[in-house]
Fold these 4 entries.
Entry 1:
Amino acid sequence: MADTGHPVLELTGITKTFPGVVANRDVSFSLEQGEIHCLLGENGAGKSTLMNVVFGLYQPDSGTMRVNGREMAFSSSADAIAERIGMVHQHFQLVPTLSVLENVVLGAETVRHGVLDMDEPRAALERLSADYGLPIDPDALVGDLSVGIRQRVELLKALYRDADILILDEPTAVLTPGEVDEFLSTTRELVRSGKSVIFITHKLREVLAVADRITVLRGGEVVGSTVPGETDEAELASMMVGREVSFTVDRGESHPGEKVLSVRDLRVLDNRGVAMVEGCSFEVRAGEIFGIAGVEGNGQRELVEALAGMRPVDSGDLRLGGRSLVGLGPRQIAELAVGHIPEDRSRHGLIAPFAVSDNLVLNQYHRSPFSRRLVRNRIAVESHAAELVDKFDIRTPGISVPVGQLSGGNQQKVVVAREMSRPLKLLLVAQPTRGLDVGSIEFIHSQLVRMRDRGTAILLVSAELDEVLGLADTVGVLYRGRVVATMAAEEADRGRIGLLMASGVEAA
Amino acid sequence: MTPGSVVRTPRWPRLSRTRTLGVFYVFLGLVLVFQVAPALSEERRRFLFGTGSDSVAWSFQPSSVTVTIGLALILFGAATFAERRLGRFVRGGLALGGVLGVLMILVASMALSPTKSTNLVPLFVQSLKLGSPIALGALAGMWSERSGVVNIGIEGMMLAGAGIGFVGYALMNGGSGGLPLYVAVVIAVLAGGLFASLHAVMSISFRTDQVVSGVAVNLLAIGLTSFLRTQVLVPLNADSATTLPEISIPLLSRIPIIGDQLFVAKPIFFLTFLLFGISAFVLTRTRWGLRVRSVGENPHAAETLGVDVIKVRYQAVIIGGCIAGLAGAQFSLETVGSFDDLMTNGTGFIALAALIFGKWRPGSVLAASMFFGFARALGVRIQLLNVEIGGFPLPSQFLQAVPYIVTLVVLAGAIGRAIPPGAVGRPYRRPR
Amino acid sequence: MTPEDRPPLVTTYQRLAPVTVPILAILTALVVAGGAVVAAGSNPLEAYWALIDGAFGSWDRLATTVGRATPFIGTALAMAFAYKAGLFNIGAEGQILAGALAAAWVGTWSWLQGWPGPVLIVVVLASGTFGGFVWGLIPGVLKARTGAHEVITTIMMNFIMALAAAWLVNSLNPVILRDTEVSVARTRPLPAGARLPELVSGTKLHLGLFLMLALVGLTAWVLEKTTFGFEVRAVGTNPEAARYAGMSVNRTIIAAMAISGAMAGLAGAGQVSGAEGHLSPGIFVNVGFDAIAIALLARANAYGIVPAALLWGALLSGAPLMQQRAGMSTDLVRIIEAAILVFIAGDVIIRYLFRIRTPEGTDGP
């Protein structure tokens, strides 16, 4: 496309509010032809909202948007697509029961005599696939594809619609370090062929590696713009958070004690009956944080659920201080002094419409003093809640407020408070800081270290490699349901772990 | 499907579903060979196909046929344990076993009846004719549910079609045929569509729970049609109106034995099959069909691609309602020529059962509907044959219950798994 | 997970507003149904006045109203209890029939006849409760063990029970439960000792009313104060979190469905033992739908069910007088009931019409 002198996309003064929340306030942003413009910000900064405005999924309360110099008001994504804007969503927007080809043509179908024509789109898809080096089987059912391939389908969907402006929303969150590098080079390839890219992320390293320009969003507002040559990670981090942050967890040396958890040759099936954990063995000691690194979908969820008694063990052994956990349910395991901070707090960890106080006794409601002879003791529940709210600094209007009304960080604090308020031998922690702001992340990290220092064995599973490396005393890499390597934190470097995450083997 | 779906940790049985069914077949076969066969009389019975000069007859001895069927079932059941080696044969065998099971019911009925011979052609034709309104109702449900909207209001939409269509007919010319009759069919279709739009407005726009909305549609249809009957039809005294005329399909109606029974029938009966053909084509081969499927599985994905989820759901639900209205017209305007309270008599719910049994796919849904039609037809035939078990007549209710029991068995996962469309039951909230 | 991913049942329940919305829904429904009256050439005010007069105009009429409401309390309570567990029990019709059938059958056992009245009544009610329990247990087990959706399974169970009852009560060869001394199809009458006493003679108001009211209090207490009630509500609101918290989701689902069925069964037994004295198949047709409407009108609140059921009873008992005076078909009340359900279920419509705000935190991105 010829240089027309104005940006391909220009947002001026965009404001978007939801009941009770200002997601974007007076945001201005522009994208030049042929650049990669990174939109950086921590969780909840309003990046996705802004891009959903650009893509026509949300309508802004005020502000203007220009595409190739012309003012636009999109009422649906169809309008955005017509202006050649394409978006790869953070949560893939695919129909699992349809084929790759059907997913690609959906909404942009070719019709001949009233009947769907699939031949022409198939040829077009194959052409795109070859041009950009994105191999794909057009007839595979999307539901059968791996996460990495699904992302490829998402990208092909946008390219099939001739998108010139591509919005990539946290595209690397589900990829291995190796796949990330590959994806970044694909992105550069796209720009070379004339596309313009908005790259949304909260990962500083990627920003510096790929961006032509960087805009930082905080609390729904633009706090600054810069280019990679003129900045570094520390500066970006403080722009993003609004104060100096180190991103390193302040923790002393660990003093591992006796073996608490031992996992031997474990095999666990997922809901479809596929073995997601197989031949998995490792040990966690008292007073250490054992961090599990690995690409999502390599059995992390099934492993933690099996340890917590929420999923049956197919074969193998789990022992807590010599006692087998196989065949026990969640309650029995919890009663052996095992805590569990689940990966999806709103789905597993909390009952949103229930009061904060009820959520704080969710797994102890049936025990004395919270219940006597099958009748609940409200007074005991409430005094317990008041104590924890105070101790864990849970910001809530009151203990009888539905927990769903708290912010994400405070909801997670409720889960953390509940699990850490009793003496534990073992704490299972999955994705403890997903979707949280930096302040809450720091709080939760410090609490984990505090538990460790009191002698609890902690199993930490996180998709954020930085989190694992920052917290763990011992790192295990999970690949296809197996811990393929275990190493002390000092020996763990990104390159080595990245390779293990991607291939399951050390470099030759 | 709808609310509060529980994610269970299934304890995967060591015995696969196929093998469970296989064990059941073997058991059934043994019962047939050792228990049923000796109890049946050795007297020969005859199945007739057609009457008069071109009829064909099959004369058989019930006990030996039973032994044969029993042995076949044992064979097919045992085959499931050699699934790896036999491959596709196993599934074919299980399906054939099902057909033999139906044949067994016929054979046993004959053997238990004092009658010596019976004509199967009318039974077959009757199955299709009784299956037709079930099939139309199920088709109505299919469109709605494939787009992601649970529809337990089919019964109400059918009743509205039957009632309002007939009221229109009675008001136009007191039910004496002619053009008003055809206009009345159109009114019935529109009435079904109107009640479906109520369901659509409630469940799509106002995001009411879809089950509740369906219940409301049913209650409203029951109330309104009963009210109209007493207020309008009773004073008009319209209770023996002219119904839709039979039409005869050229050439096909001259096929020997079945032609004059199957291809000489009333128009909505023929329309059933036509509508299924069209629906299957539209669902799989057109743009709109693809969009309906996507909206029913993952509306958010469809929305990001510029598909108007709300509009597609409205269209699918209302088209479904129109089809249900046509099914209603089949009762009052095609078959009976009058309207009674609760005339559809639960057909809409059997249709729902057929929809599940047919796993939301047009071909299977049609087959399931016809199977349920067969159960109804057989119920009638068994009464006529005076079939007796243990000295007492076999209650017709037993066969009437077959569709419901089959559906429970299917839902329990005993015969294949019924997996509904992914987004069915979940209201869609458009992002703003 | 965002709020829209929560089960819609639960969000409907959460949106519970004070009593204003239900009352406005009833009034709107009356206006809408009034349209039908006008269209039929009558005066809606006259018709409604006759309806009210017929339902409350004298002590006997009032007693009839309360008597008609009695079984609705039990069935709506059954619906509401299952609803709290996240289950949509559409099977009240089958369960009440199962209960009534069991009561009608056990009540006529000859060897029971010499027993003292109170014992006999307890036996009859217990068998009815058990009948409903079993008929609720089956869909509960199917849901818990195989995931079969309770809406569909309970509809199927309704039809199976209706057919079973039709066979058991109608059959003349062999005679199973049928009373051969009367020409209509119904079961043999219960002996006097097995009958719940009438409260107002000549009406169908019987002691079962107090039984139902006690059940209301018991249900409210169990749900709000006991650990089991906490489990039921937790499973109903977020089954996965309940499982994480160590509750047995499957057991709770089975228990909730079975208890729900038992409540409906008790209501059925109460009708047989109290109001009717025998069972005619078909007397409970559409009771399940009514139960849904009443439970929703009461916002699944146990105490709220009492006035909601009374409204239903009043509509049914007032209808004949309305027909007599205003020439309106009694089926008009069916339209009113359906319209109430429409406006209650689609409470967004009422909130929109009357500009009532949806509570905080239920709307948004």
Entry 2:
Amino acid sequence: MRLKLAFVQNRPVLGDLEGNLRSHVLQVSRAREAGAKVVLFPELGLTGYQLKDMVPVVAVRRDDPRLEALREASRGLSVIASGVEESEDHRFFISAFCWEEGELTHVHRKVYLPTYGMFDEQRYFAAGDRFRTFRLQGIPAGLLLCEDAWHASAPYLLGQAGAQIQIVLASSPARDVSRESLGSERSWELVLQHTARFHSCYTAFVNRVGFEDGVGYWGGSRLLDPEGKTVARLDILEEGLELAEVDTDRVRRARMYSPILRDEKRWLTSAELGRIDGE
Amino acid sequence: MSDLSINPELTTRILTAFIADEVRKIGFKKVVLGLSGGIDSALTAYLAARALGPENVHAVLMPYRTSSADSREDAMAVVDDLSIPHNVEEITPMVEGYLASHQDADAMRRGNFMARQRMIVLYDYSAALGGLVIGTSNKTEYLLGYTTLWGDSACALTPLGDLFKTQVRQLSRHLGVPDSILDKPPSADLWAGQTDEAEMGWTYEEVDRILFLLVDRRYTLSEMEREGYQPDLVKRVFQSMQRTQFKRRLPVIAKVSNRTIDRDFRYPRDWGR
């Protein structure tokens, strides 16, 4: 089975939920015209990243009427977008939503909230507590939000649960200009290749661009095939929309040649984790 | 490791994108900049011209009667090379108007007074032309506090603020800043023959390596000593940094309410942008 993914590398306006929603809907129709079956947006694309005290102001409930236009835009395809989710008990999460054929089919709440150096997420957000796969146009898939992907257990769990596509939505800042490519890009490349190869799955990375308080987000969104090769890449620092294709036959071939998934000893992992925890 | 080399093309891409983004999203298209003839303001002009187009970078030359003639020539070389609009505003009468009755003012007071007078002129140009004041300070100056508070430190955005002086030199060479500017010793040009390095008592090469290890790499003083750095020099650099912390912050606010600006009233500068 083949699936065309659209990568929307955008530049959200900080704190402008309505404006960002409108531009999301517009991008979905552009992607649809280009033939996309899945449209991917970056982490907190609906709100911007450095929200601080704006978090409660831009928060939405899953059934928020303001999301109606975007939900409607998902008829005939899938839309994966991210914003601030407010739970019934008024906790705020960084969430990624998947709408497909006009229905909300999956929500992932960011589990790992970086709170060190330039990041301050735990001050403002509650943490999610699960990694679950879902069907994306019929294909088993999993969602990760930025820092989630840096914890080896997160892609591992999605891989073990059967994900053939792992999608990472990010707001990754541009840092370290000492070498040929950005330091941020070099580290992400390693993480994404690791994810694709170790779990023989497609790995999609969608990162935003634009500046907030002097911090630049570097873009460079890309698709890696199940062998870890980058098959599509958007430029750094520029807005863009590009399509790239996922082919489940290639997942099959990768797993045939290199059956690491088949050979994984989950019982051993969980027994050893139990032992380590007991010590 | 204290290699301060940077990829100039990548750095230029980030800094020009930064200038274009931070200027335009708040509804401006121009910047106003004080062009001294030194390397920092020259490089800032080259970056801003790339980011916004030369017609949107307005240079103001603000000589004082003791400023060196070379400074003016070097500033004009930048204006000509970039074809940016410019004005010359002699600050001598404005400065003398005050200092004439304050003859006792020492070199530091006079220097600070000039730096703040230039700030006043730039902010008036900002209002007159509808352009943001773009700052020219670099990371070395910020960390050492080698700026005049509310003088040359006053600006809306500052593209070189995370680059050490030696990195400013690298990038300037890459972007074609005139040789006469690249080759001369850095100077605040507040009096004849003044140079930064003589005044501070260290070279930028030395101090940049020390600051890079202390700040970027978070080395402790004893780790610095093990690396072969002179403890006295390292301590002096560290103390300059600590003593001038106030210059890098907003004024301290006395907390009396439940929600105090910047303490528990927390919004990014780019709120809603």
Entry 3:
Amino acid sequence: MAEFFHMGGYAFYVWMSFGISALVLLVNFLQPLLKHRQALREAEDYYSEV
Amino acid sequence: MNIIAKWYYRLGAPNWFYPLAGKMIPWVAAIFVALLIPGLYMGLVTAPADYQQGESFRIMYVHVPAAWLSMFVYAAMAIAAVVALVWRVRMAEIMIISSAPIGASFAFIALITGSLWGKPMWGAWWVWDARLTSELILFFIYLGIFALYNAIEDKQTAGKAMSILTLVGVINLPIIHYSVVWWNTLHQAATVSKFDTPSIHIDMLIPLLLMAAAFQFLYLLLLLMKMRANLLEQDLASGWVKKIVFERQKNLKK
């Protein structure tokens, strides 16, 4: 297991690559979730005033 | 009206697209996860280390799919741009503006992971080689498309301007692809996407193809989510959003 995380001495480069990619894609996943929720709330406010 | 024309017309209507995309999202997400898990496991654990690059070659399993997708997303946007300009389909414009940040993210990942691989292998984080430079330009074109649409208040004008800019940027795609052939680049030439048989071992190739397929479905997933959010935000005062809001409130009261 330690050998797996060591990545033959390239641990920093390999795990940084996978880590940064995961982070960027996670932001892409969360952004529309939050935007959708906010848009829905705004629509509800809009129609409750009408 | 024939079936294709009818389907095409309906796809252009947000009141039809919005619930359909909502139904598709969980399935697309499930396929993405089903491809990602074996792809990651095989890529990180079972694929044999490269005889020259050692374990560092595993970076390829995010780098290559991200780079492929950064170009695929752009090609899809260019097709949508033609549809938007010729047939004035607003949904195609929503597709472009929703794709741009995803494409930019894939290009960013390709550049960063390439840099993280280049440091131990080439001894440099960055070189101004044709492949790297043209990919960096692709990243900036994505940002430009996104910024242009958001800078113009009137969304009809914004959509048209963005579609034209998207078509102009298509010139960069063949430059990226053939850069390793046309110029003497430090970046290695293609091993999979060429007309010969791929010069890569099958145990290394399978996880790569799994990851590439996973990234395709991830693009579709993120695209559907972003299109839904953008449509809802833009169409706040239109009839179909009103219907959705009232149906939601009815369901909440139950």
Entry 4:
Amino acid sequence: MKRFRRDLPFEADQIGRFLPWIISFMVFLGLLALAITLSISETINGWNKNMSSHITIQVPSDKASSDDLQKVIRILKSTKGIEKVQLLDNSTKLTLIEPWLGKKTENLSVLLPEVIEVETERNKFDNISVLKIKLREVIPEITIDDHREWLMRLISTSDKIKIISIAILLIIGVISVTSVMFATKTGLAVHTPIINLLHLMGAKDSYIVNQFQLRVLYLAIIGSFLGSVAAIIVLYIFKTIAQDIELSIYSESIVPLNNWLVLITVPLTAIIISVVTTRRVVLRTLARIP
Amino acid sequence: MLHFENVGMRYGIGPEILRDLNFSLGEGSFNFLTGPSGAGKTTLLKLMYLALKPTRGLVHLLGHDIALTPRSELPMIRRQIGVVFQEFRLIPHLSAFDNVALPLRISEESEDIIEKHVKELLVWVGLGNQILAKPSILSGGQQQRVAIARAIITKPRLLLADEPTGNVDDNIALRLMHLFEELNKTGTTVIIATHNQKLIEKLDHPVMELTDGELKILNNNLNRS
């Protein structure tokens, strides 16, 4: 079996001391940025799935007659793209306000509004403005909550967060590449006499490059491992805190396997970037030797 | 084997260190290269072991026109050249064994062959009991023998030695020369750069003398072109 050759005294340089820490820090930041973005994105996607097809219509009980209410329901049912129209009964409305007022609401003196839950066909209903006008002609005080409106604002915010996150990841990538380039160039400078000697003995560039590559691969694996462990610990702490305060934006969503598969690309990318950068820097430097 | 034609060499924009070198060395020849300090002996050797490219002229080495040889083919030519550097250039963190084994490992020889040949050679140069010693604990003479062993381990076609007797007394110097002569008998072309006139006089080999960057052939069977 071919032994792993290491003719260059890597212990003599400082790369081994600082490169794993830089890589671990970059992996840590990258994982946090990606995990938080994925979490927000996943939560908003969940809301989008559940709510984008719902409209809630409220009518103050003292402002509309039963006929007006039925007229509104007829308009809704005849509108294209509306799948289901449901006038909530009193017990359902009491259940909805239970989290705020508790279970003892039988003798409630407050007049609850009439609530109509409307389910629309996904992506087929887009005439909310026209509907609003029609309904207000019947009952001017009617309130129409289109969940999609604020959801769109949330999605737009989420998209901005994604862009910021991608920018952060790119910056982290650039810093990583620069750090590895600097470390490799330092290593090349420190080991120049031995590199020249190997070169004069007939070593091909690949013989020298492989030694640098294996060294950086080893350091990058250590750095990525440390950064990943630190990030997992911090994400776990975040998750525990989020669960304690029932913070829905930072939900269970970082746990599913598909997200972990995305997150694992961060340390893998860090390792690949390190090795490829090293290879390119060493090859370019060696190409200058005649 | 080695042919220089109108070769000139300068560093940067400085004056020419070597001027109009024209000579040919045949396969299996043994030659001394001498001249005062600063005459350009080391630069000439560097041109021969391809550490430098001439600023003008043609260098033909081991059947290749070096100017026309692609960079990717130069390692294979370098592997046929053994060099004993003036300052030895041993790798400090490697043992005597690993230093000598280096050219074989670069040539991707198997570890079994490396083990056998390196041990034999280290015994032959009198370092059989220092196989695992690092250069730092070896004497100057022992380091020199490691450097020589490293230069000849691949049985090179061309052996270049830059002041190989600089750090040893006359007796050891003569023994080293006999070692090079032994190697020369097996077909290796040998070029020894030295100041040691006594040694040159004791051994009957052609002498190339460099003075102020110009080469003179003193007594020889060299073919001057």
